[in-house]
Structures are given as C-alpha cells and as structure tokens.
Amino acid sequence: MIQPDVTIVGAGVIGGSIAYELSKRGANVCLMDQGEAGQKASKAAAGMLGAQAEMDLDSPLYSFAQYSKAIFEGLKEELQDCTGIDIELVQKGMIKLARNPLEQEGLKKRALHFKESNEQAFWLEEKEIQAKEPAIQTGGMGGLWIPGDGHVNPSALSTAFVQGAVSNGAALLDYTQVYSLIVENGKVNGVMTSAGPIKSNHVIVAGGAWSEELLQKTGIQLNTYPVKGECFSVFAKQQLLQSTLFTEGCYIVPKKAGRLLIGATETPHSFNERVQVKGMMSLMERAAGLLPALKEASFEKSWAGIRPQTADGLPYMSRHRNLNDLWIATGHYRNGILLSAGTGVYMADLLEGREVREDWLQTFSMERQISYAGRE
Ligand code: FAD
Asked: FAD dependent oxidoreductase domain: which residues (predicted)?
C-alpha cells in the first residue's frame, strides 16, 4: 500500500503540472485519475497561450497569466530533457481582429494601454494585417497584433507533466476513481478510491469540471459549473496562416504540417461530451468567413471537452480555510493550458509555505467564494 505525502485528484494539465513541480522539489506524490491521464478538457484545448488578447489588463489574473506564460520557454527544454516529449511551443504571434466598431474601439484602447505600459502589442490597420496574413478576410476594421503570443500542443503538455512527475518519483494511479475525502478531526487524511483508501498528509483536488461533485460529498460548495466546448481541425495543402487568428466566437490556430485547429463553441452547464452538428455548423461558417480558403481544406476530426468555470470567472488555487491540508486547484476555464505552468509552481509554493504574492493569494482564494455566498 502506497502512503504518499500529497495525493492529487485529477491528472489533467492542472493536476499534472502540480505533480510535476512538487515531485521535482522532492515531495512524495500520488497522482490519481478516474480514466486515462490528460484525456478530458486538457486534451480538447487548442493550446493557445493568449494572456494579452482577453483578460482585464490590471487584474491579478492577468499578472498571473503573464507569469505562467513566461515559464513555458524554460519548461519546454526541461520537459523535453526529462521525458523526451516536445510540447511544440510556437511563438509566432496572434492577431485579434475587430469585427464591429465597438470591438475596434475596445481593441484600440487595449493597444494604447499596452503602449503606455511598454508591452509588446500593437494596433494594426487593415492594410498591415493584409500584408502580414494575405489569406485572411479582415472585415476592414483592423486589429490587435500580439507578437509574443503562441501556443503549445496541449495533449503533449499534459502527458509531459504526468510522465515528468513519474520520472521524478511520483506514483500514477490511473483508472482509479476518488469517491470521497477521508476527513478526521477537521483534517483531510487521504481519499477513498475504487482501489481502496489512500492515506496522505495533503490532498489536492484538481478534478477540473468534476471537482465540485467530489467536494460536495464533504459539504464543500465551490460554485463552479461546466462549459462545453467543441473544436475541429483540417489540413490545408499550403500554409494559410502564420499567426493565430482570434475573434469573438472563433479562432484559428496554425499547428504543425498545414494543420489548422478551429474553435470553439461555448455551452454553459453542459457535461455532454458529444460533438453536435449545430456547433460544427456555426464554427465552420465563422471560420470560413475569416479564412475563405479553409473551404478547400480536408476535414480531419472534431471533438468536445468540458471547461471548469467559476461564478466569478477566476480559478481557485487555494487551501481550504477550515479543513486542514485540503487544497483546491480548479476553475481555469478557457485558460487552463496557459495557466498550468504557473499553477504548478504556485500550488507547490503554497504547500511548502513559501511567500506568494498577496494579490494572488486573495484573488484565487476559496474564501472569496465563501464570503460571496455567505457560507460558513
Ligand atoms: P481536466 O483536463 O478536465 O482534468 C481533470 C481530470 O480530473 C480528468 O482527467 C478527470 O478524469 C479527473 N477527475 C475528476 N474527478 C475525479 C475523481 N473523482 N477521481 C479521479 N479523477 C477525477 N486553455 C488554454 O489555456 N488555451 C486554449 O487554447 C484552450 N482551448 C480550449 C478549447 C476547448 C474546446 C476546451 C474545452 C478548453 C480549452 N482550454 C484552453 C481550457 C483548458 O483546456 C482547461 O482549462 C484545462 O484543460 C483544465 O484542466 P484541468 O486539469 O483542470 O481539467
């Protein structure tokens, strides 16, 4: 019977990243998943590392996203050395197109904000976009150019985290469902699983959209909900795009060997992992409107995944206030791949009692939800 110091529930990109970082620091970790590691939201993602396109620029989430993004360059080499897996980090930039005057105004303001804070993101007029990406149908409104943006292969990243953790000495128990937490005298002492009880000093719940269901059994209410997302991919004969193309409601990410990944739909409160025709039809129509040559490309496949979202749109990365040694890392919604690298380091710092940024501590705390919901 294994007796880890830290049990992590969920071997998606979040649980995997935490397991990797903790095991690298010498912790005795057990990573568990009810299925195969990395097969849920983390496999469905497009893999964009898009901190500057959407987030509120003065927020703790934005500073955390930038912090996480900066880790990726070193992480790429580190994971490659440790596991032989290439996470396919590409940094060829992103264009966020304005599709109407309101979006144009918003993106221009964003560009100005970046200029004032000396960040690498610029407003591009119609002609400049056309020169950069001739295959795009721009809509004539210009857009924001973010040269440092990029993407990774999310599946390779999730697998590399898990394999990296295992090569650092972590135990992986896949196909093992965690039924409930073992709670004794106001402290979490392990988990009850389909393979029997596993005792440990700390438990980290990183079960993505399914975290809430598990925590509810111990009377913990997170206020999260699932948001289904669908994507599809195609192969084009020639390279249609260099940079990622992003608009409200549709993005196109150029991957390796002429492959283009197109996403994503959003259906709140759905755990349905089937791809539906209506989702594909609306995505295809939007994508072809942005990149008409897409109609000639060969369809590869489509898929769906369930994003974990919170009521206030911010992830939980926190210890539980009243139940000692229970930790939560979920609710990364549309940015779990981007935030994964930072989450691993941040959660490991929290567990080790290291000093972390006060604004992150407050913002990502579970207590914000408790006071918001008036519980406890
Ligand atoms: P998951 O990957 O869902 O992993 C949770 C794991 O926990 C699962 O493997 C599950 O089996 C396991 N689990 C749950 N409960 C239990 C239990 N009781 N016992 C044992 N195991 C359990 N993010 C980006 O940054 N960039 C993108 O471009 C991007 N695109 C996306 C596109 C789509 C279509 C979708 C769906 C998501 C996208 N995301 C993107 C978001 C990102 O994928 C998620 O935020 C991230 O994968 C969440 O990771 P996770 O580990 O929390 O959850």
From this structure: 5-350
Residues 231 and 291 in one domain: yes
SS3 content of the chain, % helix, strand, coil (to 5): 40, 25, 35
Angle CA 356–211–214, to nearest 5: 125
Q: Please tell me whether residues 19 and 70 are part of one structural domain.
A: yes
Domain housing 72: 6-80+154-223+312-373
Q: Are residues 129 and 245 in the same domain?
A: yes
Which of the four pLDDT bands, split at 50, 70 and 90, describes residue 372?
very low
Domain match, 209 and 252 both:
no
Q: Which two tokens stand for residue 16?
A: 């995997």
Decide whether any atom of ligand 1 lies within 6 Å of the 332 Cβ.
Answer: yes
CA distance 214 to 194: 14
pLDDT, tens digit (0-9, with 9 covering 90-100), for 53-95: 878 888 999 999 999 999 999 999 999 999 999 999 999 999 9
Which of the 8 DSSP states describes residue 210?
A: G
Rounded to the nearest angstrom, the distance between the alpha carbon of 38 and the centre of ligand 1 is 8
Ligand 1 contact, 252 CB (< 6 A): no
**CB 13 less than 6 A from any atom of ligand 1:** yes
CA nearest ligand 1 atom 16, residue: 207
11 lines ligand 1 (CB under 6 A): yes
Domain end, chosen from 310, 340, 365, is at: 310
Return the number of other C-beta atoms located less than 10 Å from residue 281's C-beta: 10
Ligand 1 atom 15: residue of nearest CA: 207
* Pocket flag, ligand 1, residue 345 (CB < 6 Å): no
- Classify the complex by whether its ipTM is higher than 0.90, answering yes or no: yes
Let me know whether 197 and 244 are in one domain: no
Sorting pLDDT into bands at 50, 70 and 90, what band is 296? very high
Rounded to the nearest angstrom, the distance between the alpha carbon of 230 and the centre of ligand 1 is 13
- State whether 234 and 259 are in the same domain: yes
Query: Which is nearest to 258 in space by CA: 294, 289, 285, 227?
Result: 294
Taken in order 119, 124, 128, 133, is the CA torsion positive or negative? positive
